[in-house]
Write a structure and sequence with these properties.
By secondary structure, this protein is α+β, with helices and mostly antiparallel strands. It has four helices and six strands; from the N terminus they run E-H-E-E-H-E-E-E-H-H. The strands form two sheets. Strands 2-3-1-6 form a four-stranded antiparallel beta sheet, covered by helices on one side. The radius of gyration is 47 Å and the shape is elongated.
């Protein structure tokens, strides 16, 4: 029955051919699997080497576990199925116990009493950074006086062009009936104007 070995702590430069040659000194492996990262395509630092015979696999473990290969000491052990080691269990050849840099329980302090009692109520937090700011609704409003024109200023077309020298009062401007500013006429005034025009 074939036995699969887990080979950990591999150099990222290691190839499948390197593993076949290296483990082939014991016996030719029936299968070599070198997993790569899906996103980067780079090797993940471990491999699986399968031997057809248990005696060959055990010989490879004794011979290569802890030996330098491409500048790194190998961690070689029999690979176990996922069900055996559980969903979050450590991989064979991995560091024992909590991972370095993790947040484990703090060792008990020899100075003073307990530092934290989970059953004790949380103390009130003191706030020494001033009073609360007034809430702003809708963001800061801009002053309309500070705003400039939003586009070109519309000009009224009068049909006449003006220059600085052109301020001649002699020219009569046509009488324009501006209904917005003119006073409404009575019926009597309208009749008077008609009589004047008829004469």
């Amino acid at each position: 029955m074939a036995v699969r070995l887990f080979v950990g702590n591999l150099s990222y430069a290691t190839t499948e051919a390197d593993l076949r040659t290296y483990f082939g000194t014991v016996a030719p492996p029936s299968q070599v699997v070198l997993p790569v990262d899906r996103e980067t395509g780079r090797p993940r630092g471990f491999a699986f080497v399968e031997f057809a015979d248990r005696a060959q696999a055990e010989s490879a473990i004794q011979r290569f576990n802890g030996q330098l290969f491409n500048g790194r000491p190998l961690a070689v052990s029999e690979a176990r199925a996922r069900e055996d080691r559980g969903p979050g269990g450590p991989r064979p050849g991995g560091p024992p116990g909590p991972r370095p840099g993790g947040f484990g329980p703090r060792p008990p302090s020899s100075f003073g009493g307990p530092r934290f009692d989970p059953a004790a109520p949380a103390p009130a937090r003191s706030r020494n950074f001033g009073t609360d700011a007034k809430p702003q609704r809708g963001g800061a409003k801009k002053k309309k006086d500070a705003e400039g024109p939003r586009g070109p200023i519309p000009l009224k077309a009068t049909g006449r062009s003006f220059t600085l020298e052109d301020d001649s009062p002699e020219v009569e401007l046509p009488d324009v009936d501006d209904f917005a500013t003119s006073k409404p006429k009575d019926e009597k005034e309208e009749e008077k104007e008609k009589e004047e025009k008829d004469q």
